[in-house]
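Quick entry, no commentary yet.
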Amino acid sequence: MSKRAEEILRGMPREDLRVREDYRDDGLRVKLATHYLIGYLGNETPENNRAVYSGKEIAELLESVCNGIE
């Protein structure tokens, strides 16, 4: 995984990355994590500065969100 993708994932709330047993709870988790990514990747912040992310980095982020991280 790229260092930029790892940085973003470290900034996410751990609860948004922990897989849930109930599919409804897990669906909500994926939704919250996706909204976090949309907000992070779409906003200009001092540390983000409207950075351009490669398709590979975005795919890594989405894969981590979908599969969860222990």
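second:
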Amino acid sequence: MPQITNVTIIIVIIVVAMSLQTIEAEDYTVGGDVIGWTSFPPGGTSFYSKWAANFTFKLNDNLVFNYESGSHSVVILNKANYEECNVNDKNIQTFNQGPTKITLDHIGNFFFSCTLSGHCSFRLKSLDQVFTALPPQSSTTPMAATFTLVFITIAFNFLSHI
């Protein structure tokens, strides 16, 4: 009889683990599908910050920078380089082939710009304190998960006694 209890527990754990759903990572086109990544966005220097404020970015979401190769680039900057428009630091990641997809791979702020001459100072830099990656959340509520676990446990215990 103890074997049935162990098997029941293992099956319940497997079924519950499989039934819990998480929100999948999403792709966000920086600046939207129409504007994209450009030197002179409408609304000037605040355009990308305002755009990003419309979203809640989660860990492992992707930012897609749409631009033509050769006309722009994307660099990932730290806050100091972002504020100073220092896009030539040898330690920064640079992407020159558009479109560029960047995964928000840590929790915190992300700072981006373009390396082409003058583009950073001419507004092609994005986002101060708005690209904050939040941890992914479960789409299953704790109550639903608890109910599912209780129901499955009762069902397996009932079936094991038949």
